[in-house]
Amino acid sequence: MADVEEPEKKRRRTADPTDKMAVDGGHRNSGCDWDGRWNHVRKFLERPGPFTHPDFEPSTESLQFLLETCKILVIGAGGLGCELLKNLALSGFRLIHVVDMDTIDVSNLNRQFLFRPKDVGRPKAEVAADFINTRIPGCKVVPHFKKIQDFDDSFYRQFHIIVCGLDSIIARRWMNGMLISLLSYEDGVLDPSSIIPLIDGGTEGFKGNARVILPGMTACIDCTLELYPPQINFPMCTIASMPRLPEHCIEYARILQWPKENPFGDISLDGDNPDHIQWVFDRSQERAAEFSITGVTYRLTQGVVKRIIPAVASTNAVIAASCAMEVFKIATSAYIPLNNYLVFNDVDGLYTYTFEAERKENCSACSQVPQDLQFPPSAKLQEVLEYLTENASLQMKSPAITTTLEGKNKTLYLQSVKSIEERTRPNLCKTLKELGLSDGQELAVADVTTPQTVLFKLNFTT
Amino acid sequence: MAATQASKEQKYDRQLRLWGDHGQETLENAHVCLVNATATGTEILKNLVLPGIGAFTIVDGHTVSGEDVGNNFFLSNNSIGKNRAQAATELLQEMNSDVSGNFVEESPDKLLDNDPEFFHRFTIVIGVHLPESTCMRLGSVLWSASVPFLVCKTYGLIGYMRLVVQEHTVIESHPDNALEDLRLDQPFSEFKNHIQSYDLDSMDKKDHSHTPWIIIVAKYLEKWLSEHNCQAPKNYKEKEAFRQIIREGVRKNENGVPEDEENFEEAVKNVNTALNPTKVPTALEDLFNSEQCNNITSQTPAFWVMLRAVKEFVHNEGSGSLPVRGTIPDMIADSQKFISLQNIYREKAMQDTAAVSKHVERLLQSVGKPPESISEKDIKLLCKNASFLRVVRCRSLAEEYSVDSVNKDEITSCMDSPDSEMVFYLMLRAVDRFYQQHSRYPGVYNYQVEEDISKLKLCVNSLLQEYSLNVNIKDDYIHEFCRYGAAEPHTVAAFLGGSAAQEAIKIISHQFVPFSNTFIYNAMSQTSATLHL
């Protein structure tokens, strides 16, 4: 990886005057520190060493930078988020914002240690911030009980580093896209001061990974989309007519029986409602008995309906620690950062693997290369839609396709608004030629996986 | 009582899906001892308290310093001057009311002087930041008492763990990519009878395309064997020919175009693994040949009695093979064909397990123990996991440190790459030596950093000399370890906290496989290594 100028040290971000002073008692920075408080951290900031980053200069000012100026955004206040907040706070970071749209659930308590039984139902971001600010004097975590999509670029621009502890690939891609949209280019050259490093962590059972992304410079989330294979759902004919596994019986109750019987009125199945799960469990057992299938349990039912991923404290601790270590390295130039992907697995002993994920030349998120769509003019719009969702490098969720025809903006297909979906649905069966599209036509595609529309160029094949 | 159980099931739901209710039970019956409530120590305990271990006891004679509070989430600044064991217990205990927390305001050295048997009561002892002499003393007591010992240390940006356990058996290792146990190379009679009922050529279209691939491969294999002198396809050429025969078995429509038969596609795809010869894994053969397996006494733990019974089965009813596992993967098939095939395997597994049970009974009787000493449930679990049984044995610290038995080969071969993680192990040993000589760690105060480099280098050289280790340690590492000044940055402590806690859980639950025997984490490069010392 090329030695990056550390813009954070050069730029002085001014503190946002609307930031709340989180701790009552009005402790201003050094006023609440006690003797020796930062000894463990100082040694890495004030002493020269043989393995430091080439840009590193020992100084007592580095600690002040962490305590007073460096602004970090933590996305997610769950399994990884709680650990990240603790790790950052105990490493000297004080200006921390945390975003999480969820409230606390009982099943979080086995690992999200900032929450207690009495907190169930309250917003994670707020409870987490309160706990940290109370336990770590001087720390000023600002909570946001919101979705990441509720903020625009002006919010994200204020941070030196952003670290994610998300449980959704869609959200990761959105965040990734947001930071890419903040990049500025002058005469085709990337302005380093517009780069906000993104540290991303993920865990699942006893496996986890941590990666460092410098948007515009290193591999981004979408460059390595194939590392996240799409979730496999059971084929409908298996569920509908030839179940073999207990899971098939559960999906039958969830997908086919529930909408048909509406046991609690015309409402969707709520995985968090025990009565709903009980109903699905009962129906699943009946179906299983019909086909002599064993193994349907309440726990399995809940797991299938909610797509539960097993989780423990230890894996989250390891991955969040790796991420926080990288935040510290980047903020202080103490050491050369991870380049750029760490994989961890402790099922059998402890296994780590570190490698450099490569940028994709034509990445739809970060390459600035216009995306190619190759179709014959006789292809139907439906085929284009399927390509956008099924292609391993794109994996869009519900793309909305618009274009300019005769100087006017035209929506070809949009799924997320019912009235527009109904109006544009007939277009799916029309050919690209019938829709008036020509060779070289630009299509703008919007999707939940990215905050900016992706431009595609239509390339007619014979 | 029912309410508490239900709420515990909810609280622990995400981890119960990993180690089950029986795994959770072992945790709730465990009593963990932590020596020294440094940041590393409390982070490890945090990751044990949250999943609900029964109890913990912290042994620590230190008083809380300002520096301690700075990197430790479980010490607050109003506990400065108080005993560290007590202060940390409060904030750890508070995280989970299911856990009972205790503390002993004593140094481990004092306890070892006055009451070494104090440590015998624990399921596992975790020793953090122990000076070498204390570590060796404690190690010796725990080794004699067969109490597992996990030594952990965060030193600058280096994390270190050493597991010390004489013999740790694992029935449920939960391997990531296990091969199926289908026995297609040596079909048992019930399976052979079952596939007789299938006549692929005369089946109707729907049945043909919903026949499990296992049956397809078995039928075509029968034909191949009769035409090839009972020799199964061996090399790539033969296997490809076999695959082609199966492809040609796909029904064609009236225009001669092959139909879409996904089950036949699955059969072709699985030919390679399906033709794998069934055999007892080498690791298991080694266990069969071990002392514990062959010398069954009334003291022999259940694991070895059951293993011996499996060995007897292999040499008798199994005709050289393990008891059938009894599971098959999901595959394209109609419900009835799949379930009936699955039942063939399940019933065979039950039969084999019953035969193993008889051997267990016989063995128990031969050493004067009642047959109920080992439950059917345990025998069934072991039989199902027969291919994946693991035994972990770690050398004692005394063996690691003795000049006569030091693992020179491991050290010198790793150090062929002078930047391998082994260099950190050697530096930690050198730093321990420094502490023994100077009663302090190198470079703690700024003014000491420079002058301690040469002192630490002397320790490095004396270490290498004492063990006759012909390796070279770059000066940069000696400088770096002086620079660390025995700092314990929280992020490194947290990494080790997660790693060590999970290893402790493996020891307590006997599920998943612990590391053996030394783990080094380098936070500078975010790399790690497991060493055998």
TrEMBL record, chain A:
Pfam families: E2_bind, ThiF. It comes from Scophthalmus maximus (Turbot). Residues 14-27 have a biased composition (Basic and acidic residues). Coiled coil: none annotated. GO terms for biological process: protein neddylation. Residues 373-461 form the E2 binding domain. Its EC number is 6.2.1.64. The gene is UBA3. PROSITE patterns: UBIQUITIN_ACTIVAT_2 (PS00865). Pathway: Protein modification; protein neddylation. It is an enzyme of class 6 (ligase). Belongs to the ubiquitin-activating E1 family. UBA3 subfamily. Keywords: ATP-binding, Ligase, Nucleotide-binding, Ubl conjugation pathway. This is NEDD8-activating enzyme E1 catalytic subunit. The active site is at C237.
From TrEMBL, chain B:
GO terms for cellular component: cytoplasm. Keywords: Ubl conjugation pathway. It comes from the Eukaryota. The keyword DNA-binding does not apply. CDD domains: APPBP1_RUB. PANTHER family: NEDD8-ACTIVATING ENZYME E1 REGULATORY SUBUNIT, UBIQUITIN-ACTIVATING ENZYME E1. Belongs to the ubiquitin-activating E1 family. ULA1 subfamily. This is NEDD8-activating enzyme E1 regulatory subunit. It comes from Scophthalmus maximus (Turbot). The lineage of its organism: Eukaryota, Metazoa, Chordata, Craniata, Vertebrata. The gene is NAE1.
